[in-house]
Each structure stands twice: as structure tokens, then as C-alpha cells.
Amino acid sequence: DVWEQAPVTPKAPEPAARPYDASWLETASPGLQWLTPAPGAIPAVPSTKIAVKHPADAEPTLILNGAPVSPLNFNGIEIDSTKTKAISRWTGVDLVEGDNRFDLLLKDGQGGVLQRITHRIHYPGPPVKAELVAEKSRLIADGKLPPVVAVRLKDKSGHPVRPGVTGELTVQPPYAALQTDSQRKRHPLTMAGPPKAQYVVEDSGIALIRLQPTAQSGEAVLNLHFVGGDHEMRCWLQPKLRDWILVG
Q: Which of 56, 111, 169, 210 has CB atoms 3.0–4.6 Å from 146's, for a disulfide?
């Protein structure tokens, strides 16, 4: 099923990520620098690409959780025109669920360690808790536009869940998820029990849950179905303020 979308206010496009290519390397300052993934990035899959800038005359060694990364993951090195700066890249580096510690060691020709940089990447587990994100919600019962309940899903470590994670949810009457009607129309004989919709996690662990348009204000109760059990979310739908005409 495809989520039916409420009208949204257009937002400015996000700035493009740095390419970290040959042109960038030519103007970059010398020294050791972790380039990608950026701090706080949430991997969508349990593997990642890595890029590190370092002096061209030093040999980089990448270590993950205490073990050297396989040479098969090394994707080559790029050196600038002055032959003083370089970018080394690795691809398809497998991640474990939870924290992943990377240590990048720069060694001289005799194997001695010249410099070390540490970078941590958290690969989130399944959601176990949720919190309301009021600034991204639209909790208005105007009878026209679908109310939007924005929730941030977190794993057991308190980190936002990765984009693309999906799950089921139930909305208690008198409210209903916007997706429910289309499910019933497509499968009228196979729907058993309370109707369930799906949530889809987007950036920053946030899922936008749209409800059927309603003019009835009050407390909306949502049950998010996680692997370890249900999580109840409550929010208040406010009536839309309208102009009054008073006759005396």
C-alpha cells in the first residue's frame, strides 16, 4: 500500500554532500582527517564505505573492533598533484549491530605507528521505544487535512533507528490511520481484527503517521508494534480555530 500524503510546505533542498574527489583533495589542508561516513551518520544497511585523508607518504591500516579490515575491502588510494596528500577508500565494510569502533593507523616504512584516529559508527538495532516529535507533527482536527503524528523510533541503546525500517501500528477509535481504508478496499474479506497500518522510518529515525481527516478533537492513542512488544503513543488533536459571528 502507498501512503496517501497530506499537503506539505515545500522546504529548501539540503546541501549536497561533499564529493571528496580529486578537485577537493587539491585544495584540502594536509594532515589526517576522517571523511566518510560523517559523525552521527546512520547506516541504512549493515555495511559502509569509508574514506580517510592522510599524508601520501604514510601507509594507512584500518582496524574494526580490534581486528584488521580485510584487504579485499580496500578500494584504492588517490594522491594529489603535489604528492603530499592522499585519500584512501574502503567499500563494503561489514558492521555489527550496535557500536562499531574504527581505528585508522598511519605507519612508516618500518611499521611504526605515526598517527591514529578513532571513529565510531552505530548501526541501530530494531526499535524498542518511541517519542513524539511535536515540531514535525500536525495535531489539528479540521476535518479536511490528515493529522500527522511524527514519532522518533530508537533502539535499545537510545540511538535513532535507521531509515527504511517498517512496522505495523494500530490506531484506536474514534481515529484511524489514513492507510486503513485503502487496505480494506483491496482486501475486504481478509482483514481480521483491528485494522493495522504501517510506519516507515525516514531520516533521523522519524516516522510520519498520518490519520484519517477528522473534525473530532481529543486524545489519539496509537500502538506501535515492535518485536519486543507494543509501545503506546498518546497525543492530543486540537480543534481548528474558526472565526465566530456574534449577533446581538
A: 210
